[in-house]
TrEMBL record:
Lineage: Bacteria, Pseudomonadati, Pseudomonadota, Gammaproteobacteria, Lysobacterales
Keyword Metal-binding assigned: no
Organism: Montanilutibacter psychrotolerans
Protein name: 2OG-Fe(II) oxygenase
Cofactor list: L-ascorbate
Gene Ontology MF, one: oxidoreductase activity, acting on paired donors, with incorporation or reduction of molecular oxygen
Amino acid sequence: MPSNPAALAASREFEIDGRPLRVFDGQLGNVGDYVQGLARAAFTRTEIARPETAEYKHWATEIKLEALVHQPIFELTRRAVLAFTSTGFGYRPYRAYTNVASYGDMLFTHTDCLPDQHDLTALWYLCERWDLEWGGETMFYDSQDEVAVALTPKPGRLVVFDGAIKHVGRPPSRICYTPRYTFAIKFERVAIGSGP
């Protein structure tokens, strides 16, 4: 239960090697509007998981932070991130983008920040429905490279986690003809009072 009354309550909570991961379900009622917008978005094959896999790029589209902060999805994300704040520290967004994966794409394990940074990644699953047989899970690994948590894409599901947790989004299975959209907002940890 979050100590900040404005923070969203998590549906499920995990800890991987002492690092938090929280799941928020049922918060985004208009997920279909986002899916329809993404179906018309201009994706480019420019995103990489880590430097040594740079030859295997995947599809992404960037969202300007100036536009993001005016979207209702950002307010929900901000309220979920509030549960991670601690005395003297908060978080501010520094990047936002959507990935799309389809059957046959190759995605690699990675981390989103260095271990001592304690940045957060907020990951939204943007789909109107998702069948369990379609795969597409996000796998989170512990320090022994064992799967610690596997999360299924669900319409409007939000996962917020410490960016130093190794993870990978698995592509959908051959029987899935629906794009697997994940919308990521990256937050850096900042001392409270250090800026917007």
